[in-house]
Amino acid sequence: MASNFNNNGVNKPFDYSLRVSRRARYAKLQIKPYGGLEVVIPVRFPKKAVPQLLNKHAEWIEKQLAKQQNHINAAVLPSEIYLAINNSCIDVVNESHDRQNSLNLHDCLVVNKDDYQQSVKQLRQWIRKQAWVLLPPLLEQLSRSTGLDYKKISIRSQKTRWGSCSSSGTISLNDQLLFVDRASAEYLMVHELCHRRHMNHSPKFWQLVEFHCPNYREHESALTRAKAEIPGWILRDLYR
Prior knowledge:
Helix content: 25-40%
Order of helices and strands: EEEEEHHEEEHEEEHHHH
Oligomer: single chain
Number of strands: 11
Strand content: 15-25%
Radius of gyration: 21 Å
Structural class: alpha/beta
């Protein structure tokens, strides 16, 4: 649902989607990467009050939408990809570029930058392969050191979650963890392994997390900040 409203008689349109949630206790505004502004309201919240809500927070909305637009504009193909998890970097070369000018094509990714979608597909495939190379050994190592087992691992791209643990023992990891420093990525894995004992976020769960990772709060904050550092090109298609 796309809508707009008038801000004190001045036309200030905000395109937004409206979602009624049975779980929501209060009205909430959230900016979704490449998804614009979403207004979440409880079942009993009057829809006619939404314009007033937007008017009240117009300044915040404008700032957040501006930040989002900057991120969208940055969704250009990269000249290099930096993986924070192992502090490595690889060049991205346009295939129409004179290859003789590249010293070592074995240490770079060659794409056709004139075809944006195909190039992103190639780069994402490379990210996924690297995720399968780098993440499973870390999870296995942490499983052994903590004594917390798991049944199998799944790696995929997710919009908001870094990872999850199913009741059947499958730990799913977001391939975007490659853009996170190793210590925070390892914390995320410990967090999910702890769900093998407690499938909730109860005090006992957090006690177990703290036992294995005393500074977990720092890593929680780091993971929150890291979302803003994910390259725009890797997120763009996820929110279409």
